[in-house]
Design goal:
134 residues; HIT family, subunit A; alpha+beta; binds adenosine monophosphate; 5 strands; 5-stranded antiparallel beta sheet; 19% strand; 3 helices
């Protein structure tokens, strides 16, 4: 699949490269949430988390951890979010699996998504439905 990220990996489109090995590539997000926001992507194309093979995921998550530590140390962040959007309905824009590694700073103004409690007993039904799909 030819995505903007495949072109970045092949060098066709420039990027600020952070890391590369045989299977994984990482570079700075061009419109960062905070400076140091890094994208970690597999070289082997898959669209999102749901269609990615286990071997690729294992390799990727180890690099995500490595990058998260480096980004925190390099930027002096007080925390780091690892975020990942799947499918258009969840805000995914580039259909090539990627993890966002986002350093966080005191008072940077970003909020977590908001939650709302279950109605009476609803969590049992939802839980049951999900367990049936496993
Ligand atoms: P998502 O919404 O999870 O698909 O995120 C896609 C991310 O890719 C966004 O945060 C964009 O800023 C980033 N992005 C798009 N084009 C480029 C590019 N050429 N170089 C670096 N990051 C990019």
């Amino acid at each position: 699949m030819d995505t903007i990220f495949s072109k970045i990996i092949s060098g066709e489109i420039p990027c600020e490269k952070i890391y590369e090995d045989d299977h994984v590539f990482a570079f700075l997000d061009i419109i960062p949430t905070n400076p140091g926001h890094t994208l970690v992507v597999p070289k082997k194309w898959s669209s999102d988390l749901l269609d990615t093979d286990e071997e690729t995921l294992k390799r990727l998550i180890v690099v995500v951890q490595k990058i998260a530590k480096a980004v925190m140390e390099a930027t002096g962040a007080v925390g780091v979010n690892v975020a990942q959007n799947n499918r258009e309905g969840a805000g995914q824009k580039v259909f090539h699996l990627h993890f966002h590694v986002i350093p966080r700073f005191e008072g940077d103004g970003y909020e977590h998504w908001h939650g709302k409690p279950y109605e009476n007993g609803e969590e049992k039904l939802v839980g049951e439905k999900i367990r049936k799909m496993l």
